[in-house]
Amino acid sequence: MATFTHHHHGALLKTPLSGRARIPGSKSRPGPFRVRMSLQETGPSLAVVGVTGAVGQEFLSVLQDRDFPFRSIKMLASKRSAGQNLNFLGRNYVVEELTRDSFDDVDIALFSAGGSISKEFGPLAVESGTIVVDNSSAFRMQKGVPLVVPEVNPEAMEGIKVGRGKGALIANPNCSTIICLMAATPLHRHSKVLRMVVSTYQAASGAGAAAMRELEQQTHEVLEGKPPTCKIFQRQYAFNLFSHNSAVLPNGYNEEEMKLVKETRKIWNDTDVKVTATCIRVPVMRAHAESINLQFENPLDEDTARDILKKAPGLVIIDDRTSNNFPTPLEVSNKDDVAVGRIRRDVSQEGNYGLDIFVCGDQIRKGAALNAVQIAEMLL
Ligand SMILES: NC(=O)c1ccc[n+]([C@@H]2O[C@H](COP(=O)([O-])OP(=O)(O)OC[C@H]3O[C@@H](n4cnc5c(N)ncnc54)[C@H](OP(=O)(O)O)[C@@H]3O)[C@@H](O)[C@H]2O)c1
After folding, report:
1. Could you name the active-site residues (predicted)?
2. Which of 38, 230, 252, 361 could crosslink 338 through cysteines, CB 3.0-4.6 Å?
3. For ligand 1, what atom is nearest to the CA of residue 52?
4. What's the pLDDT at 38?
5. Does the structure show a pLDDT above 70 at 28?
6. CB within 8 A of 76, min separation 6: which ones?
7. Would you say the CB of residue 210 lies under 6 angstroms from ligand 1?
8. Domains parsed from the chain with CATH numbers
């Protein structure tokens, strides 16, 4: 197994502050969907919608890191950013305004400009023959739209390929769902999860580039004794934490929590699995952490669980009880792999039917851009 690859931002626009700690001696494997190419005539034509945003910038970074083949790439954002220059792989690109005509001759479009933009332009793109990989929640639960984590359910998008003259929509799951299922799925395959309890510790990056800038600014302000600027979350974020900022529903859950519940059932194709979640925003810059409690139908002991997780693609184990060293958001920032640790038998359950684990994953990378680019690789 190779070490964690160190990612760098591809040049691009100014990106907000990001932790880039390396994990010495940590393990990962070459991605199962790796392709070695880049700018080539035979590659697909690409469009990145929302290219100036946190996820959009990461799309470019991941395309570069994975040498994704393409013959052309269109950089799309709102009117506000149109005309901006952007350097990618040594070439200059001008950001264009997203319009109804943006998708003529685009094979694959990576969308991350929010749900309303996806709803408006996604179907238009599909009509013009484009395969849309959408990062918003607009189509995730729509029947017939595959909701895909490549390591978990690649079969859901079977038959969708570039070059067949047909557009399609594929949805990228919510970041917390992706990171959770990367670790929970291999265990689920072995012993069948009956119930899952998830508690999240979510980073600023999940709320976009402006939220990351605000956390940084607030941190300075609080340290300088000034009142913090509260535009994005309407409250102090630095040196604080609070319930996830998504809308609270009549059942008392917020939307982020219900995404974990519903998306898990769709991705696992299991309408019976019981999932409950509590989602919390913590003042971390760019990677999410999640505590996951699992209840199984069939017994699974700690050691077997550890062996299963060791072999799972896209996962790295950090589980050193002696030195109290377990996954942290900082260590996985800018990394592809999701880290898992605190692997232990749940003492509240009889026998080997319960397990607790703790996971950390870079939510802009595996939680968004990387997962979408892996999906795009499967279209080739
Ligand atoms: N952050 C995440 O981790 C994450 C994870 C999964 C999914 N997503 C999804 O991706 C979306 C973007 O997230 P983000 O974190 O990258 O947000 P962000 O940093 O705020 O970026 C938003 C992007 O959308 C573009 N945009 C806004 N209005 C537009 C319009 N009318 N037409 C065309 N482009 C427009 C912005 O362009 P301008 O520069 O022109 O404003 C910018 O490029 C989210 O709304 C969410 O649906 C995000």
Report:
1. 175, 288
2. 361
3. 43
4. 72
5. no
6. 47, 48, 49, 50, 51, 95, 96, 97, 98, 102, 113
7. yes
8. 45-172+367-377 (3.40.50.720), 177-363 (3.30.360.10)
Alpha-carbon span 71 to 189, nearest angstrom:
39
Question: For residue 92, what pLDDT band results from cuts at 50, 70 and 90?
Answer: very high
d(CA 106, CA 331): 36
Query: Is 374 exposed, middle or buried (CB count within 10 Å of its CB: 0-12, 13-18, 19+)?
Result: buried
Pick the catalytic residue: 7, 188, 244, 288? 288
pLDDT recorded at residue 322: 98
* Neighbouring C-beta atoms of residue 107, cutoff 10 Å: 22
Under 8 Å between Cβ of 118 and 281: no
Ligand 1 neighbourhood includes 185 CB (under 6 angstroms): no
Among protein residues, the one whose CA lies closest to atom 31 of ligand 1: 78
pLDDT at 3: 35
Identify the residue whose tokens are 């009889």: 350
pLDDT, residue 379, reads 98
| Known catalytic membership, residue 175 | yes
Distance CA 338, CA 150 (A): 14
Distance CA 180, CA 171 (A): 17
